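Fold this sequence, please.
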Amino acid sequence: MIRINLLGVPKPKKGKRAAVPSMAGEGPNPLMIGVVVLLIGAAAMGAWWWKLNNDAKVIAARMDAANRRYQALQVVKQRYDDRQREADAYQRRVQVIDSLRAQQSGPSELLTMIGETVNSTDGVWLDKMVDSGSTIDLQGTALSVHGVSNLMEALKKTGRFRAVEIKETYQDSSVKEMQAFTFTLSCEKKS
C-alpha cells in the first residue's frame, strides 16, 4: 500500500534520531510584511516631507529677511550715489575754478609787467594793448623817438619777449603845443 504523508512531516526512521519538525507553512504572513513595509515607507516619506516643509519655511524666512536687508541697503546705496554725484560735481567746480585762477594769473602778471615797464620809461603812454596769443601789439604816444626806443629796450630786458619790433611811428599833427609821436610795437612772446 502506498502511504501519502499529507502533513509534510517525515516519519522518523527507526534507529536514527527523530528529525526536527519543519515549520513550512507557519512563516510570517506576506500581507503583514507588505503592510509593515508600507507603514515604514509612509512614515519615512512623512518625515522627509515634514523636514522639507520646515526647510522651505526657514528658507522663506531667510529670503524675507534678506529682501528687507536688500531694501535697506538700496536706500543707503542711493544716498551714497547722490553724495558721490555731489562730490564729483564739487570736484569739477573746484577744478574749473583752479584752472580759471591759473589762466587769470598769466594775463594779470603780463599786464602788471607791461604797466611797470611803461611807467619806468619817461614820456611814454599806452593807448591800446592787444594780446593775440603769440604776439602782443602795443599802441601809444611818446614825447620823443628816444622814449619809444627806451620802451623797446625795457621790454626786451624783461625776458618775456623773443623780439620787440616797431611797426610804425609818426609825429602826431593833432597835438600843436608840443612834439608827440604815435607808435605801434609788436612784441613776440617766448614760448
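Residues 159 and 190 are 8 Å apart (CA to CA). Strands lie at 124-131, 135-142, 161-171, 181-189.
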